[in-house]
Amino acid sequence: MHGMYPGDLLTVDSFEVGVIGAGYVGLATGACLAHLGYKVTCLDRDEERITSLQEGTVPFYEPALDRLVARGMRSGHLSFGGAQELAWVVRRTDVVFVAVGTPQGDDGSADLANVASVAGQIGHALVSEGSASRERPLVVANKSTVPVGGGDYVSALIEEGVLEGGGATAKADFVVVSNPEFLREGSAVYDTLFPDRIVVGADSRGPLEIMRRLYEPIIGQDFPTEFDPRPKTAVPFVSTDLASAEMIKYAANAFLATKISFINEISALCETTGANVSLVANGIGLDGRIGSRFLNAGIGWGGSCFPKDVSALRAAALAYGYETPLLDATVAVNEGQLRRVIEKLERHLDTLMGKRVALLGLSFKPNTDDLRGAPSLEIARQLNALGATSVGYDPVAGILAGRALQGLEVVFDPYEALEGANAAVVVTEWEEVKGLDPTRAAASMREPKLLVDGRNALDPTSCREAGLLYASFGRE
Ligand code: UGA
Q: What percent of the chain has pLDDT over 90?
């Protein structure tokens, strides 16, 4: 299974790359590798998504990605295909990235069904007609977030696919490496081209070398870019064993989620003691050991990654008989943040029954239309249960939010959302929301004109001077 990699067999120019899964991760990876000059084919089983991409339309909102995709297609470096083309891609490529979703299963653990299905198909493809001509082993680079041991599981399933497709004596040359992804939605292209580090885990040296060479232009920051000046001069390449790379991904997300929950717990203490959490975050963040990023207090963390990854890590620990008191607290504090939003509304409105509440920003964070794990939807549900009506505004995710939550009225102008509302909640700190004119907001709203700033994004003084009843998290 672990083949040899004669160094002179492979020059960087000869790399052909396949990417399975054309979501945020797969598409950003594919488009960026095409930008670096590789020939890339992205596959997805969702025919509609592939048709849309072949027509040059990125099927979700992600800044800069559409431009990069268009350029890749024009230059002939980037193409798209359906699942039926997997065998063709496996035959002609050196590295196949697996970038399919690993959603949260019913018991909290990571659901590996998509990864398993792709692994089986790769196995079949490796022994399909024409694959005997492979000159070197296929590197299967797993970008999907899988628990420790996931890479070995993928190897076993590929092996099974090989035996199923080629008979009991069939053999195929492949190796699975872990290449966790750290890009953020909303800045996927930037994060892929200018990452803080590239992590690759494998249990043999050959595939690590292949991956290092594939990433050489990013490691050496040797590619053309519109970013001027370049944000980075070099990017560390961290090579580890398979298990450590898989753990790095979970540990990174769990740490960041914990950092946010930490500042949110401090923000509650700031409220009771009269301290200001923004000043506190600045004061501790300047300590290089702590760092100032991911210290914004507010509604808490959501999205498609932190909740499912923290949950999967807890589930994996449980399966090994370990307790995770710190992660448990991270989740509990985060759940408490939504309660704090409702409490702030109730405190100032007496009752929510019959009140109208505007939700400003609906996507789980700015610069994306992703609503997975979006606090807005949960807040709207709770408001509804308490007898209030909610009306939502979002510059990009409005239509999707209206579809996701029946009964949520959606409008496309923030002041229209505020019209006649007794209260508003800043849920997502879009520029359009941060730039709200408090005087116009107050003129549109109905008493008591409460503004709960769930992201500490607006200026308290100008809001109060404009006549709004302003409440935020951990500051006066
Ligand atoms: C996160 C990680 O940041 C990425 O490194 C990782 O690759 C990705 O998950 C993933 O596993 O795929 P993402 O979910 O796109 O990226 O969004 P973030 O920018 O990390 O924000 C996560 C959540 O934390 C959001 O709900 C955001 O509003 C919240 N947040 C973030 C805060 O409440 N406070 C902060 O200071 C920062």
A: 90
Q: From the CB of 295, is ligand 1 less than 6 Å away? A: yes
Same domain, 61 and 190: yes
- Looking from the CA of residue 300, the nearest atom of ligand 1 is 33
Nearest-CA residue for ligand 1 atom 31 is 294
Task: Tell me: do 56 and 176 sit in the same domain.
Answer: yes
Closest CA to 264 of 330, 363, 324: 330
Choose one of 194, 246, 256 to mutate for the ligand 1 pocket test, by most ligand atoms within 8 angstroms of C-beta.
Answer: 256
Residue pair 16/188 in contact (Cβ under 8 Å)? The answer is no
Of 309, 292, 290, 72, the residue nearest 192 (C-alpha): 72
- CATH value at residue 452: 3.40.50.720
Q: What is the residue range of 92's domain?
A: 16-240
Which pair of tokens denotes residue 379?
């807040």
pLDDT-derived band of residue 406, with 50, 70 and 90 as boundaries? confident
Q: What is the pLDDT of residues 16-39, one digit of tens each?
A: 999 999 999 999 999 999 999 999
CA distances, 196 to each of 39, 91, 234, 286, 288 (Å): 25, 33, 9, 19, 16
Same domain, 151 and 235: yes
* Dist. CA 184 → ligand 1 center (Å): 6
Q: Any catalytic annotation for residue 305? A: yes
Candidates 32, 42, 270, 305; catalytic one: 305
Q: Does the beta carbon of 365 sit less than 6 angstroms from any atom of ligand 1?
A: yes
Q: Which of 310, 341, 365 to mutate to test the pocket of ligand 1 (most atoms within 8 A of CB)?
A: 365
- b/e map of 387-412 (b: 16 or more CB within 10 Å)? ebbbbbbbbbbbebbbebbeebebbe
User: In ligand 1, which atom is closest to the CA atom of 368?
Assistant: 15
Burial 138-171 (b: 16+ CB within 10 A, else e): bbbbbbbbbbbebbebbbebbbebbbebbeeeee
Q: How far apart are CA 441 and CA 223, in angstroms?
A: 46
Domain count, the chain: 2
| Weakest mean pLDDT among 14-23, 70-79, 264-273, 411-420 | 14-23
Q: Are 200 and 240 in contact (CB under 8 A)?
A: yes
Is 10 inside a domain boundary?
Answer: no
pLDDT per position as a tens digit, 33-80: 999 999 999 999 999 999 999 999 999 999 999 999 999 999 999 999
